Amino acid sequence: MTELFIQVRFLDVIDIFLVAIIFYEIYKLVKGTVAFNIFMGIFIIFVVWLVVKSLKMELLGSILGQLFGVGVIAIIIVFQQEVRRFLLMLGSRYRANRRFSLESLFLNQFKFASKASLHSIVEACLQMSQSRTGALIVLARESELQEYVETGEIIDAVITSELIRSIFFKNSPLHDGAVIVTLNRIKAARCILPVSQKLEISHELGLRHRAAIGISEQTDAYVIVVSEESGHISVAFNGEIMGNVPSDELFKILESSYK
Q1: What is the C-alpha separation between 199 and 218, in angstroms, rounded?
Q2: How many other C-beta atoms are found inside a 10 Å radius of the C-beta of residue 8?
Q3: Cβ 36 vs Cβ 78: under 8 Å
Q4: Does 246 reside within a domain?
Q5: Residue 199 maps to which CATH number?
């Protein structure tokens, strides 16, 4: 006798739930990017493949199966930035859950010592905002951004408001690019950052803002942008950007980023 009902085990429910979470995280990563259409195309092919397998269409099923087998490498190449962000997200959550460790002990010392540095950064941003001096400052967190540091001029200096403003002074040879701050020191200036490929970014935002969003998509850094046109201060994190941030709010955002 043909069974009229599909038997669903508890493990099947867990399996569906985990797959749904994975697809949702992938959707959040590629939403608003050029890769979104590619992801939707792959997802549609995957659904068709499942239907073909369930209908036991051997020839078409084997073709689609081989396509997926060979296409894994191609998918990784196409989605290399999204894969990087996904792995970074997993690693950041893992390290955030490690409450008791020697690393967290040293990080706590770093947090308290960094308050003076954060005040210097905020003071510099406020003065550059008033003078409408364009600036792009990257604050490294878990990742020290060494690959981006190497694209610029190594400074490795103590953070001061005067030094930051002198770097971004319009006649300075180091003003064109980003400053990267790591472990309470200005590691490098004139660094080259990846530009975001998001299609939904406002056309009013310039290249500095797109670079800030781009580096925040690929790393866990906080990025400060001072607009040369308007003098507004913006903060980018996790692929999103907040515009026209007041100086007191800026300090709170940066302070909370190291908790």
Answers
A1: 16
A2: 9
A3: no
A4: yes
A5: 3.40.1700.10
| Whether residue 109 sits in one domain with residue 39 | no
pLDDT in tens, 175-202: 888 999 987 889 999 999 988 877 777 7
Q: How many domains does the chain have?
A: 2
Of 152, 120, 146, 147, nearest to 224 by C-alpha is 120
Query: What pTM did the predictor assign?
Result: 0.65
Provide the β-strand partners of residue 178.
191
What are 121-141's pLDDT values in tens digits? 999 999 999 999 999 999 988
- Both tokens of 32, joined, read 């608003």
Residue 83 belongs to a domain: no
Residue 74 and residue 222 in contact, taking contact as beta carbons nearer than 8 Å: no
Q: At what angle do helices 10-30 and 35-54 cross, to 10 degrees?
A: 150
Assess whether 67 and 21 both reside in one domain: yes
Take residue 24 and report the two structure tokens written for it.
């949702």
Task: Return d(Cα 235, Cα 39) in angstroms, integer.
Answer: 29
Sign of the torsion formed by the C-alpha atoms of 120, 123, 127 and 132: positive
Q: Which two tokens stand for residue 91?
A: 């690693």
d(CA 103, CA 198): 35
The contacts of residue 237 (CB under 8 Å, 6+ apart) are 216, 221, 222, 223, 257
How many whole angstroms separate alpha carbon 176 and alpha carbon 165? 13
